[in-house]
Amino acid sequence: MMDDVVEQKQCFCCLKSLELDATSNDLTSIGMLDDGLIFRATGNFGSTVFDPPGYEVLEMYVCDKCVIARADLITYMKQKPNAALYRGVWVLEDGSRV
Ligand SMILES: [Zn+2]
User: Fold this and answer.
1) What is the pLDDT of residue 68?
2) From ligand 1's centre to the CA of 33, what distance in Å?
3) What is the pTM of this model?
4) How many whole angstroms from 41 Cα to the centroid of ligand 1?
5) Separation of 92 CA from ligand 1 center, angstroms?
6) Gap from CA of 15 to ligand 1 centroid (Å)
7) pLDDT tens profile 16-72
8) What number of helices (H) and strands (E) belong to the chain?
9) Which of 8, 11, 73, 81 is the most exposed place for a label (fewest CB within 10 A)?
């Protein structure tokens, strides 16, 4: 049984301290961040800073407050099996649009 591993991280935008449950030691499993979201980038061909040839990722953390504050800059995407990709407005759980 693995012991819980909690790492202190910081919000990419406001630098607020955030706790990450980083117990998993596997890139296919994402940790759990309190009061925030985890974003991973695998790189892309157009980037001049991160385009790795293998399975490597960059990970960053954004607190919920900053996500909401900049929600107008976020693209929401959803896809069901055998359906077209929806890309558009993000509707929050309370029904409000951002
Ligand atoms: Zn923040």
Assistant:
1) 93
2) 13
3) 0.83
4) 19
5) 18
6) 6
7) 999 999 877 778 888 899 999 999 999 989 999 999 988 899 999 999 999 999 998
8) 1, 7
9) 81
